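Example 3.2
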Amino acid sequence: MQPSSDKVDLWSEATLPQIALFARDELTLARWMRMLSRECEVHPAPNEGALQALVEAEVVEAVVCDDWNPALMSGLQRRPQGFRVVHCGPTVPPEVTDAVEHGYQVDHVDLPAELLRRVVEMRGPIHPLPFRPKLIASMLRVEWTGAERSYPLIALSNGAFSFRVDESDEIDSLLPGTALRGVQILRGHAVVVTGVAALVRHVESIGDGSLDYCIKCELLAPRPESERANLNHITDKARCINLLGDAIREEGILLELLDRPGFGF
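Structure, written as tokens:
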């Protein structure tokens, strides 16, 4: 039997993924190493030379870092489909923005507590993005049509984002499967992402001692102009009954509240 020449995605294997850890101080390096070692084989990179050596030797599939380094871009350019970077920090360096906008597999999280989960989620195969990726600085907030206010983002990546909901807020309208229309991501008063929709995928408590929730959403590709449906407001009762009958006999019908798009059955 001839051995297969197909490449193997190491992230999908049973063995632990190989991760390089690049942090600016020894305390952060030690803390993150203990945390990530639960799910990864961690290779510490205490300085730029060590990081460059690990990336050039191609012994790691990803780098977790709290600061950007030119060696990261070199690795992304050489292995655009087999190398990933997760940046963690209160702000996003412009180099991270550039890398994401060029389609490289780069994620950002604000909190170290999100690092382990993000690395585990990255194990799956890389899928092509359905739309041009966006990632603009930190201090981001998200809002959508019908939202009472904007909410602070926790994490933002090529095709997904998560945000924080205060314990005093109602989450009944943010349960998994809820569609969010007219999603906008803002930095201050500037709109940096618009014209997209999202789907709530997961809701979980934030394990930081509070009762707040983390809402995880998948960004959906905007529908092309040629495929967008025209909306007609019909108030005639007989016409409405006929349309409902036709819909039930065919493929079904989706009902939504006018003041709460994405909430219906």
